[in-house]
Amino acid sequence: MSELASDATDYSVVEREPSDVIAENLKAAARLWSSATVFFFFAFLFAYFYLRSLNQEHLWKPKGVHPPQGLGAAIVACLVAAAVLLHWAAVDQRSDRRPAWRLKGALALALGLAAIVLQVVAWTRLGFGPTDGGFASVYVGWTGLSLLFLLATLYWLETTLAVSFRYRAHSMAAPVPVEAGHAAGDAYREGQDIEDPVAVNVAELAGLTEYWTVLAAVGVISWIVLYLL
Amino acid sequence: MRRPRLIGFNLLTAVVLGVGGYFLGWWLGRQVTGPSLDYFGDTGQNDVALFVAYFVGVVGFLVGLGFANYPVQRMLGRPPSLREKETEGVGRYFGLCTDHKVVGIQYLLGIGAFIFIGGLNAMLIRFELLRPTHLAWNGNNYLTLVGIHGTMMMGMMTSGILGPFANYLVPLMIGARRMAFPRIEALTFWLLMAAGTILMTSLAFGGFPTGWTGYAPLDEQANMGIDAYIAFFALVGLSMTLLGLNMLATVITMRAPGLTWGRLPLFVWGTVSTSVLMLLAAPVLISTLFMLALDRTAQTGFFNSQAGGSPYLYENLFWIFGHPEVYILALPGMGILLEILPVFARKPVWGYRLAVTGMLGIMLLSFLVWQHHLFVSGINANLRPFYMLSTELISLPTGFIFVCALGTLWQGRIRLTVPMLFALAWIFNFLVGGLSGVFLSDVPSDTTTHGSFFSMAHFHYTIMGGLIFAFFAGIYYWVPKMTGFQLNERLGKIHFWVMFVAFNSTFGPLLVIGFLGMPRRVVTYAGYLQGANDWVSVSAFVLGASMLVFLGNFVWSLAFARVPAGANPWGSKSIEFQLPSPVPVHDFDRIPTFGADPYPYGQDGAAAAAGQRPIVSPARPTR
Amino acid sequence: MWSRGSHGRRLAALTVIGTAIVLPLVVFVLGPNMPPGKATQVAAGQVVDNTVLLVVMTPFTVFILVYLGYALVCFRAPKGEAELRDGPPLRGHLRAQVAWLVTTTAAVLFLAIFGTAELLADNGSGSGGGPSPAWKPGGTVLPVQVIGQQWEFTYRYPTYGGVETAQLVLPQGVEIAFHVTSLDVVHSFWAYELGVKADANPGVDNIAYVKTKKLGTFQIRCAELCGLWHGYMFDTGKIVTRSQFAAWIGARRRQFAPVAKYLPPYSTTYAPDPPYRAG
Lengths: 229, 623, 279
Ligand code: HEA
Ligand code: HEA
Ligand code: CUA
Ligand SMILES: [Cu+2]
Prior knowledge:
heterotrimer; A: mainly alpha; 0% strand; elongated; C: alpha+beta; five-stranded mixed beta sheet; binds heme-A; binds dinuclear copper ion; binds copper (II) ion
């Protein structure tokens, strides 16, 4: 028996996790996942400039391969608009105007979905196929990966909205009542293992907003590289 | 304690849903591509269907384990939760459990199983090389053996030390009760197991001829077996990225009071520097494989020089990931080395800051050197002096690790226990590995040794001689803590000495064979090299046999002998040895506050009471 | 039992003695016999390079091995020690760390500068330097194209009407420019004794220079995995006298003449019909 821990499992000592620790976790994770995301797209940025410089057999961008400028601009506009909305929403949430934040959050979600739909429409009306040279390949691959990342981020936004909506009746001050069930995790333990899940919602939105800003920045760079250059 | 139910989210359901998902995916893929790509008709080669099959199979596997429950609950607005199935008895080892100690042990056995397969492959490779002409395997089978050996080993050993030991020990070493994201931690393990299984299915599709590097255009010319390679490394990449993210988030946000960055144990520093590399390098690999999958399915032209792309792109992107990958293999070994030497030399780490600078130096430089794998490829040859310089500069931070290790031995009171033997062997092996690397970094010298058995022997010295020796040092040092039972000392020493001698007798001559002009990945070679190759093959079989000695010891000690190890079998002053063995589920009764120095050896000079660290009772009871 | 100072002095002495023993062995015995031999100027350059690498590494290797041996002898806990006794709480020693940093930095910088000098001179030209290598030979150059395809190297001599042969024969004492390319996957043309290695990439003209010196044969290997019969892609090349070469190439041209019009004209890269053509 050492003075740090008893031999037998004494699981009761595992208190409800303070919300500020979870908040720290989420903020750190948002920053770390942002840097990983940047490296995901760095590979395509490298591919773009490398294949363009090689221009093997002059097949980088054969004649008639032009990205749909209008749709491209619309997509990146949706992304940036959603980012701005989320920043706004975060301000609302911090000052306890939660219905306002939920509205802006839902709007941002809609804009995100719009971006996805617009991208799929862009693919159907591209005017060139994946086999039409280096640029076509990079365009298809890059936008494909962006779509996957956007989908994952929209899932994250949806969960933040859903928690805020479910606990809309609770004021930020009062801790959430004990609620057993799947979300409570360990089936053998009663009650919530997080001190105040609603407070964690603030950190979630803060992390998400920061991440979405990075994703929007990557979107702007993609737009410049794929459409303007 | 509830009886683990048969129906429900467990390994059995996962396997059923996984295999079912695979066939469902295959059917779906055929429907999608059936009419348009039917010209595959006769060969039955349908990459799209196979990728969809793998994807749906993995999703089914994860859903069966219960990974989908939490996201679905979250989408319904339920608040987050951290712990799942942590106190369910032995059943928790066979399913999704969020206890970092369970995941650590799952990793050890899971990775052990797969690198055992990798090791068997190696034995079959050496068997074939007994004769310069055809012996047992034709060209394709031999290349598949080499490909699966290399891919499996690299994919698994990437999280070979961080998986088992960092997951188990980092929370303990920083005074926390969990990882930042317990479910993601479990996910990284199960992703890796799915990946290993998928790689073995490559045998059903005729294997793949590209080796672990998978260069284009051969990877686009290859048959469907290459899709298993792509799916394997994509899943390994995802598992790496998430493991890195989780480790960094844990160490950044969950250190106990008093534990500043300057007081972290060096094993944690090794984990942190490796995690940064994993977080940033693995995404490049995943994107590259995404491009390769598109090339094979949607006929894009990333790596096809006749369609606007270039094989050079694959080579560059692969090695931008490739070199950080090999330091992802090396750094955890250095972390274990500098954690074990103080214990068995009874001295604090010599030059703590220098060692940390060394690890961070290796981490930073590892992104600037990748074209030393491409010296003869003809890719921007005028940059070779830069890559030669940046590659040779890595010898400086690595040199710091060496001098800190040697300094720790200075005037120490060395006890040659089994972990110490493996740690000391690491120094010798990694020296030979590193110096052979410096040979390779010199362009004129690399002209002869590139693509030869010399470069193969180089990386076996650094990986087998470095990483695997550190891996076994970690096993003998920490398994008593993880399981509560001692590993037999005598069998351990037999394993060490046979392994050390056989390892050098295997890969030492391979350095010479490579210099004499034997290329890599050849099923037939020049007759005059047979004598040396036979010596190497026999030594390799002895090396394989030493692994069986280890397995015998592992199983016998833990399943039959079960000699209790006690809380602190080595008299270590590291915090995990102040806890009972095995460590209880809740880790700490109270979160400790850390004293000044992680290695307080020689503090009281005379009698060193085994293991009492100056721990002050915690300031904040709740945390 | 021994004071700190004497450990240090003893280790320094052992290192110096060890180095003094090993260095001559390296310079006079091991070095000259390092691969790839002296068949060409480039190969001889590599032998010098390998020797210099060995020389620079010797003191560090001797120091580390001597230190390990010394520690295992002198810094041991006595057998069957009743109670674990700690060593002295030494956490670092600035002078020793600075000394190590300075010596290793000096060694690394020397190696980098030396390697670069070798590369910019003609010692490194045996490795494929891409379409426009940094170092180009001065005088007359005999271009020889090496075409890698799945699973054979063939050779074309552009200055002799682009004749293509399956065997590589080179005249003695001539500066050769290998133009290495591929028709399908990546191969790597490795002429061991010549000290030449250059990747063969489809659509790329990878150039390596070498000046032939000794008569005799040399091994040709493929050094980049190219699929099923990669292991069988080996051959033997020959360096012959200029007159023998002239006779040989003349015979080949006569044999090649009727077939010449069917082969694609000589060009630095060939674009075989790809699985699909873009654009
Ligand atoms: C754990 C894995 C690991 C590690 C740590 C290293 C470490 C190093 N490697 Fe290695 N390497 C691989 C794994 C690794 N490598 C693999 C897997 C491949 C081949 C992949 C493939 O093609 O399939 C490879 C291939 C490879 C190549 C390409 C060879 C070729 O294909 O042409 C080169 C070339 O520069 C190279 C160099 C180096 C160098 C300079 C180091 C340095 O980090 C070593 C530094 C260490 C020391 C130098 C010793 C200690 C230092 C001192 C004692 C100080 C004093 C020393 C001096 C002053 C020199 N490696
Ligand atoms: C982690 C990396 C790793 C490890 C450990 C090894 C281990 C070994 N490797 Fe290999 N090898 C590679 C990575 C590795 N290798 C790579 C990347 C390639 C290049 C592939 C390519 O060219 O594409 C390669 C290629 C390669 C070749 C060249 C093939 C060719 O080019 O034709 C050869 C030939 O001798 C070889 C031999 C061996 C041998 C004899 C061992 C022996 O050390 C094996 C000994 C057995 C084990 C290490 C198993 C130990 C595990 C257990 C006993 C289980 C433990 C259980 C628990 C912990 C619970 N390897
Ligand atoms: Cu051609 Cu290997
Ligand atoms: Cu490298």
